[in-house]
Write the structure tokens for this entry.
Amino acid sequence: MNGHGKPMEKNMRAVVIDRTGGPDVLRLADVPTPEPAAGEILIRVACAGVNPADWKCREGYLSRFMPYRFPFVIGFDASGVVAAVGACVKDFVPGQRVFAQTEVGAGKWGSYAEYVAVSQDCVVPIPDNLGFAEAAAVPTPALAAWTGLFDEGGLKPGQTVLVHGGAGAVGTFAVQLATAAGASVAATCSTARQDELMALGCDRAIDYRSSDIAGSLAAWAPAGVDVVLDCVGCGTLPNGIDLLRPGGILVAILTLVNGDNGPDSAEATRRGMRTAVAYSKMPGGARLREIASLIASERVRPPRIACLPLEQAGRALDLVQSGKAPGKLVLRIAELSNA
Ligand SMILES: NC(=O)c1ccc[n+]([C@@H]2O[C@H](COP(=O)([O-])OP(=O)(O)OC[C@H]3O[C@@H](n4cnc5c(N)ncnc54)[C@H](OP(=O)(O)O)[C@@H]3O)[C@@H](O)[C@H]2O)c1
């Protein structure tokens, strides 16, 4: 059964790659529907979030971390309903609304498909106040923000944090999670996004195109900030260590882009500061549950989304890769009831 009382289809539609490379390696294919192994949940996918990691996965950037077995279904984030559960799964039932960061980063098939099998440790019930499309926009960026701020950055109530790239998906979650944790937050963004970030709880929105970031931040936190979270990377914040108070920490979200070497840890140590590189660690279920509870209590909300059909996955990846996406993109795969 597929979670809505209908028999499971033997094959499913999925966006796959047969080799790594540019946009032309993507194709829509019929592939076997996965079966949930012990401890796994088979999700009937309603929506798949589109992340920068998806085009990087297509290009082969993940080969440092996992073997690609072709054909390979890409896609980090899924929302949908439980279609079936494997042995030893107790807390989920067919038909339940769930979302997850899939295990595509470990070489398993991802979310650009009608079904995805994921370890139960990655899967979380969707809060009642989120639809499938918004839920699919949450896991990877929110988990990266959480790991960067709290696991690596050790951010505490009353501390100060600069979120570099506050208007991106990771950045908007970071601004809200830091605010909800009782920190004071400054963020860099373009002029057009400043009001939006202030409405999300930012104390100071710094225009990265026209402002002197160091000068604007010093006017807000003269002794430097406790944590800098760099959500953009690639040398866009060349003076990150200069922005810290003594003993502070610069955390860079791992971009996987060749030549992005992250912060200069030797210089930081020499000056009495610290650095770390953050990525969303698997399985993310425990952290995603905490994020879901902040969403349920309306202390955190997903970014503005725009939806495209699964058939336009290639276009979606081009828009994200070129920085022209009109918001956080989500692929609609099936119209499922919200019950
Ligand atoms: N390793 C991991 O586990 C992990 C997980 C999640 C994300 N990431 C990585 O983190 C990065 C961000 O991901 P995302 O999902 O947030 O991407 P995104 O939503 O596409 O973020 C794009 C945003 O970056 C901002 N930006 C671009 N250049 C900037 C600059 N020079 N200064 C300040 N802001 C700038 C833009 O802000 P404006 O609109 O204001 O111009 C834009 O809104 C990507 O490289 C992604 O691959 C890694």
About this structure: The longest helix spans residues 139-152.
